[in-house]
Amino acid sequence: MINDPEEVVKVFLWLVKEMERRYYLFEKERARNLDNYNEKTKGEHLPYVVLFIDEFSDAMACDPINVERSIIQLARLSRATGIHMVLCSQRPSTELFTGLMKSEIEARICFCTASKIDSRVILEQEGAEKLLMKGDLLYKAPYSTTLIRAQAPYISEVEIDKVAKYISEQSRPEYNDSLVKFIKANETQ
In the chain, which residue ranges form alpha helices assigned H by DSSP? Predict the structure, then answer.
């Protein structure tokens, strides 16, 4: 877990480099995507990477140019490499979610918003301002113009701990310290 917005910017830069490294490996193995690469190789088995950014506005406030550029690159190219992003914000705005970013990020989920404008920022349609609280949401699927209304479940801290414990008991973790090394090597920047 990373809490420093400046380090979050470095995580985005590292993810772009990791995506490019994976494309290089795919090219050498003549693989089309992560699953195909993992089937073909006996050595390095590449894991899926999912980046969760809880308050995206903090990262954008820190370095908007690099964050926006990284998100656009990742949204455009990273799916085949097994790298995925979940970006969250409590205060959606056009400065935060730029037109270029929204054109590349196809799938979107929106909970209840304060106004029609906030709904349009996320979904490019009104509707989220009419949602009920407590997990009521609208989902926009990739390449679709229709919204799907759904209900997100509430998960307590106790349940989260139980799930995390269950997952950690399945096998020993394998750590890849390349991200930590990248952040430390770029601390002076």
Answer: 5-29, 34-40, 56-62, 64-77, 99-104, 116-123, 157-170, 178-185
